[in-house]
Amino acid sequence: MGRRTILLDEDEVPKSWYNVLPDLPKKLPPPIDPATREPVPPSKLEALFPKEVVKQEVSSDRWVPIPEELREVYLMWRPTPLIRARRLEERLKTPARIYYKYEGVSPTGSHKPNTAVAQAYYAMREGVERLTTETGAGQWGSALAFSCDVFGLRSTIYMVKVSYHQKPYRRVLMELWGAEVIPSPSERTKFGREVLERDPDSPGSLGIAISEAIEDALTHDDAKYALGSVLNFVLTHQTVVGLEAKKQLELVDEYPDYVVGCVGGGSNFGGLFLPFYHDVAAGRASGVRFVAAESTACPSLTKGIYLYDYGDTAKLTPLLAMYTLGHDFIPAPIHAGGLRYHGAAPILSLLVSEGVVESVAYDQVSVFEAARLFARTEGIVPAPESAHAVKAVVDIALRARERGEEVTILFNLSGHGLLDLKAYEEFLSGKLKPYHYPREEVERNIGKLMAELKELGVPPPSQLTG
Ligand SMILES: Cc1ncc(COP(=O)(O)O)c(C=O)c1O
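Above: query sequence and pyridoxal-5'-phosphate SMILES. Below: predicted holo structure tokens.
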């Protein structure tokens, strides 16, 4: 019997992140300023983000050194373990070998601190005193609160109001790490006040919270904004996950046939698969299948269209080239809050449109069934988001059983679900219902977006790739 848990020494935590931009099959279509219809110059992004991360956003350097002071902070939870899911394999009676990279060992219980500490570090170096951000259920907010605390910054976190009241535990975590947590929409910002005037009982949404956090950063000199997914630099920071996993698989003489992750904005999946994609792009590997698992309640990759769209409801962000359901998409209240984003990372979107990455969608009941199987075999309770990857892996492993194929599957268990037990309670009591976002809704939103883009004169991304 081979090893179950594959660990690395501290000195094997990567010293550089991998930046995929120079290795993409086509040039990434640039973010577009809707006012000028021109690509957004990096200098404009500096109003919002620390200079160094803006540099990383557009960098053509394949390797980005991780500053030693930041790497020291990574050592608080990295390297994370790679675990062979033997008991799951046995239960499924599959000849497939299943490995998972477990990011739930971070202080906040998910992969999110991999980029949060980096963004807080660069902000601190550049004299920023405070970071603002939005959060839904609180995974990203708690990661940023922790990271700001590490580097002596203050944090202001706009938390979707309904979650603020219904999901208090991650709010408590954020406050424990010194954050100011504000239920959104709030009286703090002009946009929040407008929303409240129209609808004093607004439950809030991620789109509204993003707009508030951005407005706060843009209107205060001491603050910048931090983002937990979607942008290139976030995916770059997350490649520590895949770089470690590659070394760990080498130790047991394995290379994956499948690399699987769940997708909200695309950061944990990107972080895992991009270093393997690098091998493919360099001609060192072939035949690897990259599988993105999303929710049927928010099927950006499987039902959305590759277009330019805004990142938020208030249209404060530039237009990004991405698979989108339209910025007016109103998500159903499913439990995998971190997957409720209308778009997807531009890097991931390009690779999906080029056929490099395939996508699948699952409804929440089948996802929680897979999560229960995982908890009862491997012992770990997956975050509802990560459980989408578990479901995809179970399907691949069962197909391998039918075909008698000894494939190697690697997936990202991006977080644990110990603060999501309410969702598990609903699942166990049969209250959870499957939900598929209706195709007519997608068509309506996309139709509206296409009309807006036509009026603006913004072409489809396919005309802007090199
Ligand atoms: C545990 C976990 N996994 C996955 C996601 C989805 O985000 P991304 O696609 O950026 O990894 C989230 C988002 O909050 C999350 O909390």
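The radius of gyration is 21 Å.
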